[in-house]
């Protein structure tokens, strides 16, 4: 124990490289003696997922349960998405999101048409998203789109008739990133899926380093967190900005009856936090901005012993690699689990839940 650390903190537990898998919580407890409710997930059939509000709490939990099953079994031999074609239309740079969606689709035996760089499309010649949407109707069964413009999804949906999954729209939302975030958290603490409120002394302190008002991943994570408000004591945003939330997020926080505050002093609040959600990159206007870079975490930071750190990645120097092999690291679990939770969503939107192996426990 380091005597210089504040109370309730300790030096992080280091995980040897050969035990790296211990950084990824087991998925089994999410569905053990808890069958997947196919009736619930069928509500997503043919549905577009643009915002967190397009998913209910029960749908989020069932998607995570299905993801936990898919993480445990080999689904490819059952060809769940045989005959289905998805377009991954990325008009903004992406590594994890595009590749995890494409991996998810291919592992389910679906097909992919990929736009990896919007500059190589007719947009470079002035083609509108209105016209592109009409073309997509003929080319595919589902569109997964990322775009720099917040209103891009609205433009595309004027003519699009197949389901659309929003993979990030400007400073808007990124709902499937929030699914990956909460899949990691539910594996870490399966009891968070319970509708029974936690005892006051067991509720979690949630800290966010970033600005929900302009960072879409942070905003979607916070909005999805409100579905689990019975387990959250308080939300603290650590930011240089006086009002990092945005009016709509404040309204949601008040409706969920969650205490919230803003601070620019990370040292004061860090030892109290159970969950630390970080991000540093926001797309504002026409360029990327790096925010809150003076707020950095490393293996010497005064983290609570049991605290976990989430980060949607890509990271810069705000999240030091020295945390990678500590018990605080939940961000690798986020990234690894994204494939499975997106598989679960794709199977639900395409209504192919009947392709699950017979040994998977389901109801409905």
What does this structure look like?
- The chain has 364 residues and is an alpha/beta fold.
- The chain has two domains: 17-23 and 175-336, Aspartate/ornithine carbamoyltransferase (Rossmann fold, 3-Layer(aba) Sandwich), CATH 3.40.50; 28-173 and 337-358, Rossmann fold (3-Layer(aba) Sandwich), CATH 3.40.50.
- The chain contains ten helices and 13 strands.
- It has helices at residues 38-41, 57-72, 96-107, 129-139, 152-157, 175-188, 216-225, 247-255, 266-269, 331-349; strands at residues 36-37, 85-90, 111-115, 142-147, 164-169, 204-209, 232-238, 259-263, 275-278, 281-284, 287-290, 308-310, 362-363.
- Strands 8-7-6-9-12 form a five-stranded parallel β-sheet.
- Helix 7 links the parallel strand 6 and strand 7 (232-238).
- It is globular and about 55 Å long.
- It starts with 35 loop residues before the first strand and ends with a strand.
* Gap between N and C termini: 51 Å
**Number of DSSP strands?**
13
The unreliable regions are 1-22
CATH superfamily of the largest domain: Aspartate/ornithine carbamoyltransferase
Number of domains: 2
List the strand order in the largest sheet.
8-7-6-9-12
């Amino acid at each position: 124990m380091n005597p210089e650390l504040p109370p309730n903190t300790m030096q992080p537990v280091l995980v040897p490289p050969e035990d790296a898998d211990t950084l990824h919580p087991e998925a089994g407890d999410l569905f053990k003696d808890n069958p997947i409710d196919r009736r619930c997930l069928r509500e997503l059939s043919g549905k577009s997922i643009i915002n967190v509000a397009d998913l209910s709490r029960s749908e989020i939990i069932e998607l995570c349960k299905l993801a936990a099953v898919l993480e445990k079994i080999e689904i490819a031999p059952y060809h769940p998405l045989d005959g289905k074609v998805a377009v991954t239309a990325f008009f903004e740079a992406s590594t994890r999101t595009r590749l995890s969606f494409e991996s998810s689709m291919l592992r389910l035996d679906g097909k992919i048409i990929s736009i990896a760089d919007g500059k190589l499309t007719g947009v470079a010649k002035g083609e509108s998203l209105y016209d592109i949407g009409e073309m997509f109707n003929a080319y595919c069964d589902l569109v997964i789109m990322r775009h720099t413009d917040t209103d891009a999804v609205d433009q595309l949906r004027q003519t699009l008739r197949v389901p659309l999954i929003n993979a990030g729209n400007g400073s808007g939302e990124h709902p499937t990133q929030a699914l990956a975030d909460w899949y990691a958290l539910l594996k870490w603490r399966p009891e968070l899926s319970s509708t029974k409120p936690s005892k006051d002394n067991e509720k979690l302190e949630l800290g966010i380093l970033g600005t929900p008002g302009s960072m879409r991943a942070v905003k979607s994570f916070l909005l999805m967190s409100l579905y689990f408000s019975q387990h959250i004591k308080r939300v603290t945003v650590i930011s240089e900005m006086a009002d990092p939330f945005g009016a709509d997020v404040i309204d949601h926080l008040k409706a969920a009856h969650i205490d919230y505050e803003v601070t620019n002093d990370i040292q004061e609040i860090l030892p109290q936090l159970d969950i630390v959600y970080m991000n540093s990159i926001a797309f504002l206007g026409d360029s990327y901005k790096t925010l809150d870079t003076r707020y950095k975490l490393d293996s010497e930071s005064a983290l609570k012993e049991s605290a976990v750190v989430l980060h949607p990645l890509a990271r810069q120097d705000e999240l030091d690699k020295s945390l990678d092999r500590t018990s605080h690291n939940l961000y690798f679990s986020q990234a690894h689990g994204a494939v499975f939770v997106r598989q679960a969503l794709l199977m639900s939107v395409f209504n192919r839940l009947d392709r699950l192996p017979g040994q998977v426990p389901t109801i409905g």
